[in-house]
Design brief:
single chain, alpha/beta, eight-stranded parallel beta barrel, 10 helices, 41% helix, binds L-Erythrulose, binds manganese (II) ion
């Protein structure tokens, strides 16, 4: 797929798509995929990131056709809704729930592998039931993630593991500890996803967080400090792009931000904000 965004340095820009928008969820396109994908393409987006709880519910035929027509790729499948809407968790104390979470991620990998896309492990890693469970939960998480990552590796799909702020997941919040978790557990085929909204809350120094991730960095979500589109808050995005260039990042930068003040403003504003900061 060609890069159409006009930016130097081969970073590719992705827009988020789901079935229905909601003002609390950081996704900016929904509805009839064909018209939305055409609009994203006209604005200069290279790809779309899909947010569904279950890959079997995604209208992938329609999406794939529209992507082909508009020369847009599928960058990633986000999976957090399987936790938020259905409670599936990679560290759940109930092994049936854990198995269902692993199975769901395998289903996402099957979908991703035929689209050269990445699968995001974010909120689906679940929450600690208490601080006393931290150690065992981290072991369980490493075990569950390894199963998923090996399955993805065999199918040529990538996995990215996301550092998420404390108000959504109560462990592995900073970029630094999440990188350490991936390295210490030797997770195969697993890179880190850094999201500027979470880093702004959790990481003392975002440049340091990106440099520390280095070539483990596999995917980037950009929203501003208030989770509105890039440029609508007070994150220094020039600092972020300088750091991304320093680690020679050439992957996707995705618009995971709120559809506010309205979806169209957010979609157009995000790409303008990114280009201004680049
Ligand atoms: C997932 O990428 C993420 O950043 C979560 O905060 C979604 O709510
Ligand atoms: Mn994110």
């Amino acid at each position: 797929m060609s890069i159409k965004n006009g930016l130097p340095d081969q970073m590719k820009l992705s827009a988020t798509l789901t079935a229905e928008l909601n003002q609390y969820a950081p996704v900016i396109m929904a509805g009839e995929p064909a018209s939305k994908i055409a609009m994203a393409s006209r604005l200069g987006y290279d790809a779309i990131e899909l947010h569904w709880a279950n890959p079997t519910h995604i209208p992938l035929k329609k999406i794939t056709a529209a992507c082909r027509e508009n020369q847009v790729g599928i960058s990633a499948f986000a999976t957090g809704r399987a936790y938020v809407q259905e409670g599936l968790s990679l560290i759940h104390e109930d092994s049936d729930n854990r198995k269902a979470a692993i199975k769901r991620l395998k289903d996402f990998i099957d979908a991703a592998s035929s689209h050269a896309a990445t699968v995001i492990i974010g909120c689906i890693r679940g929450n600690l039931v208490s601080e006393a469970h931290r150690e065992i939960a981290l072991k369980t998480l490493a075990h569950s993630t390894k199963i998923v990552a090996e399955y993805a590796q065999e199918r040529n799909a990538g996995i990215v593991f996301e550092a998420i702020n404390r108000f959504e997941n109560n462990y592995l919040n900073t970029a630094l500890e999440t990188v350490a978790f991936i390295k210490e557990n030797d997770l195969p085929n697993t890179k880190i996803l850094l999201d500027t909204f979470h880093m702004n809350i959790e990481d003392a120094d975002m440049t340091h967080a990106i440099l520390n991730a280095g070539d483990l960095l596999g995917y980037v979500h950009i929203a501003d400090s208030n989770r509105h589109y890039a440029g609508a808050g007070h994150i220094d995005l020039k600092e972020i792009f300088n750091a991304l260039r320093k680690v020679n990042y050439k992957g996707y930068i995705s618009a995971e931000c709120l559809p506010l003040p309205d979806a169209d403003t957010s979609l157009a504003g995000w790409i303008r904000g990114v280009k201004n900061a680049f």
